Amino acid sequence: MSVPLHGIIAEYESAEELLHAARRAREAGYTQMDAYSPFPVHGLSEAIGFEDHKVPWVVFISGVIGAIAGFSLQYYVSVIDYPLNVGGRPFLSWPSFIPVTFETTVLFAAFGAFIGMLALNGLPQPYHPVFNAPRFERASQDRFFLCIEASDPLFDRVKTRQFLENTGARLVSEVEE
Amino acid sequence: MQQEIVQTEPAGRLIEGGHTYESITHKIGSVVLSYKHPRAWYIVTAIAAVGVFTLITSIAWLLLRGVGIWGINQPVGWGFAIINFVWWIGIGHAGTLISAILLLLRQQWRTSINRFAEAMTIFAVMCAGMFPLLHVGRPWVAYWLLPIPNWTGAWPQFRSPLIWDVFAVTTYFTVSLLFWFTGLIPDFATLRDRAKKRIAQVIFGVLAMGWRNSAKHWHRYDAAYLLLAGLSTPLVVSVHSIVSLDFAVSLIPGWHTTIFPPYFVAGAIYSGFAMVLTLVIPIRAWYKMQDFLTMKHLDWMAKIMLATGLIVFYGYIMEMFTAFYSANQYEQYLVANRFFGPYAPYFWALLICNGLIPQVLWSPKVRQNVVLLFIIALIVNVGMWLERFVIVVTSLHRDFLPSSWGMYYPTVWDWGLYLGTIGFFTFMMFLFVRFVPMISIFEMRDLLHQTDRHHPAAATAAATPVAHTEVTP
């Protein structure tokens, strides 16, 4: 066949079956794979050997930027550009700047979480080959999938297929690129 | 047999009716994708649409004639606009409490109601935001509230709680919207995959943004969702605290007290849960969602309402005690004026609605009675509105000098705008129920998975009682 493959995908009926299969695939030495489930399955990302802690850092850094931006805005307005003497209070009356600083911190951090999560996940993404897999629409409903990708060094059209068939999959199929 | 099940697990389960992943997805998703809706949906939406027109008319007339069409005057400059602003903002707070704080506390029962409550937050904050904007008199220059350089050369006064309020409310709205949308992405993907019609596939496909339920996606998603919850939790406390500072930072009798921030936050959650119950009880019946919104959920919401109601009542008692103990004649007069002054009926009604009637919730029988719960929730909604009325009006209408005393009477336009926002809120909620999954589908699947693991036989409807007694490892 001339159509390049994205990988070979196996369908399971339960989260436990998927977890089990993902662990076995890791033990067999596969590294390039992805699992698909209709809800976040605890331990699944570890099972496929994926770990990423960038989101919390993005949120933290956005929050710090928000705090600095919020406070400096108030400093610039109240001390430099438009100083108003209110009852002899200092221009830099920082305790009354805390609420707004807090709000901008939360605002920036929340945008960091939202945009950071989407960007790191590569979303929005109009096309992805895994959607070519048969019955893949059920990954968002009630079925669990494990896809071993063609980029894996151990990937072999026949052997990988046999391997997945032996993990208790209901259906194993090739996914075109 | 049936009785034994009840005995071994008295509180009931969070998902009833022997559901599977597929049946949950179908039950919730089909509300959006089908064209069949209960007749009640059409009736309520039509009535709410009348409310929307009332709102538009009230705003149009206000913009033409100015705030003079309202009942506000000297000394009562705040009136309905601020009463309703505080009332609506408070209602929004239960949404964030349910979605964020209960998530952090790992309360599984939040799953069935969080989507709904978050939607309520967003629409309630929209209603709330209209009031101060219109109250400024010239809403077309409302951007002066924001730190935007403009031709006047002036900047906002950052030492004022009113500016803190602008930041708090806009941040609250934005973060609630982000949180809500984040929760919706996987459900949009589900609807995209289930939709039969091309138009639905395209719309939900665009909204899902290519979400493919990958474990890698979920991994980052969980982190982001939890962090958003962690950010929303202090945010929600800050918002109503700042709203209360609008009052507490002033010197007016009855406003200038330190108990205001915690007392406002408790009141907000109280009124918010009342509104959740008011909406959930009919919608659960019309859309037959009793399997997901069980009596257990209603029971717990009623308990939270009871608890926060007691905190609020403690606040009332504390206000009176502070007035007495301060030996300040103006504070003492304020309390006397509330009990026996011209607005005394409002105050007594408030005590009955917020303090007395909700005490029947101590009885489990009342909490299990859907109709009674609905009525009590409505009464609490009214009570919390009266509370804000009493706070705003009784303090302002008689302050320090009898020469500056006055009375406040709302006009038809005050009522028009207020009822208009109720119509708008209901209208938006019913559109939400129609076009967006009202219960988080993926979290319900997750909940089913977890409860199945803990109760192995739970997935099969007629489980043997023995299976339920198993304890989580």
The CATH homologous superfamily of chain B corresponds to Formate dehydrogenase/DMSO reductase domain
**Largest protein interface?**
A-B, 64 and 60 residues
Q: Which consecutive residue ranges of chain B, at least 5 long each, have pLDDT under 50? A: 1-11, 455-473
Shape, principal axes of CA atoms of chain B: globular
- Rounded mean pLDDT of chain B is 87
Count of discrete structural domains of chain A:
2
Q: What's the tally of helices of chain A? A: 5
Low-confidence segments of chain A = none
- Strand numbers in spatial order across the main sheet of chain A: 2-3-1-4
- What average pLDDT do the residues of chain A reach? 88
- End-to-end distance of chain A: 12 Å
- Main sheet of chain B, how many strands, which sense, barrel? none
Q: Give, in order, the helices and strands of chain A.
A: EHEHHHEHE
What is the string of SSEs of chain B from the N terminus onward?
Answer: HHHHHHHHHHHHHHHHH
- Return Rg of chain A in Å: 25 Å
Which terms would index this structure?
heterodimer, A: 177 residues, alpha+beta, 2 domains, 4-stranded antiparallel beta sheet, 5 helices, 4 strands, 14% strand, B: 473 residues, mainly alpha, Formate dehydrogenase/DMSO reductase fold, 17 helices, globular, disordered N terminus, disordered C terminus
Descriptive account of the structure:
The complex is a heterodimer of chains A (177) and B (473). Chain A is an alpha+beta fold. Chain A has helices at 15-27, 44-47, 54-81, 98-120, 157-165, and strands spanning 5-12, 33-36, 144-149, 171-176. The longest helix of chain A is centred in the middle third of the chain and has 28 residues, at 54-81. The model of chain A has no long low-confidence stretch (mean pLDDT 88). Chain B is globular, with a radius of gyration of 24 Å. At the A-B interface, strand 2, helix 2, helix 3 and helix 4 of A face helix 2, helix 6, helix 8 and helix 16 of B.
